[in-house]
Amino acid sequence: VHNGASNNPAEDYLEIWNFDVDFVTPGNSTLSKVQDLAMAEFESELCGLTSFECVPQPGTTTRLDPLREVVMNRVQYRNFGDYEVLVGNFVTDVAGGTADHHGIRRFELRRTGGGAWTLHQEGTWAPDSHHRWMGSIAMDGSGNIALGYSISSSTLSPGMRYVGRTAGDAAGTMTTGEITIVAGSTSRT
Questions:
Q1: Closest among 110, 166, 100 to 133, alpha carbons compared
Q2: What is the pTM of this model?
Q3: Cβ count within 10 A of residue 13
Q4: In terms of Cα–Cα distance, which of 108, 127, 117 is closest to 36?
Q5: Which of 94, 106, 176, 180 could form a disulfide with 164 if both were Cys (CB 3.0 to 4.6 A apart)?
Q6: Tens digit of pLDDT for each residue in 111-125?
């Protein structure tokens, strides 16, 4: 992901790369950029561009690493026959400026017949004042999506939650409501 690739201040981009691996002769492997895919603007400057301590926790001044500018875990690929899908996510600052409120930007890309990838849907999950980051997203064989992530704030100990959507839900929405996987009980120092 990168922002600022063009002079359009309302768009940022996903860079799509193709890695063709030759396991017999590794030197023949290639890595080539396929396309820049425009998406809604996002802010990756969380506590500056060089801080590794940004996410607050209760009862301590020790902060957690937001892992910015990285598409998390792995981008998941699915082939549905008539079309292919990639789903992924990364952390973004939903408040902008110096407020540093972490939310999860998620995206679903599609392509048909081996053509160019298109942005099918995207959205940012940040429904309240708690910070969400370090996500993991997956799509099942029916097209339903689940998004898991870490959560913390100055009033909530670090924990894990998830949210989801069914394939028929309106694009850009997460409809299951947030579900706690692990409720945090202490801060991480």
A1: 100
A2: 0.89
A3: 18
A4: 117
A5: 176
A6: 999 999 999 999 999
State the Cα–Cα distance between residues 94 and 84, nearest whole angstrom. 29
104-107's contacts with Cβ under 8 Å and 24+ in sequence apart are 104/132, 104/133, 104/135, 104/147, 104/149, 105/42, 106/135, 106/137, 106/145, 106/147, 107/14, 107/39
Dihedral sign of CA atoms 125, 130, 135, 139 in order: negative
**Tens digit of pLDDT for each residue in 1-30?**
554 545 567 779 999 999 999 999 999 999
55-83 pLDDT, tens digit per residue, is 999 999 999 998 877 888 789 999 999 99
> CA-to-CA distance for 53 and 142, rounded, in angstroms?
38
Cβ–Cβ under 8 Å, residues 105 and 90: yes
What is the enclosing helix (H) or strand (E) of 118?
Answer: strand 118-125
Specify burial of residue 92 (Cβ count, 10 A radius: 0-12, 13-18, 19+): buried
Where is pLDDT greater, at 8 or 179? 179
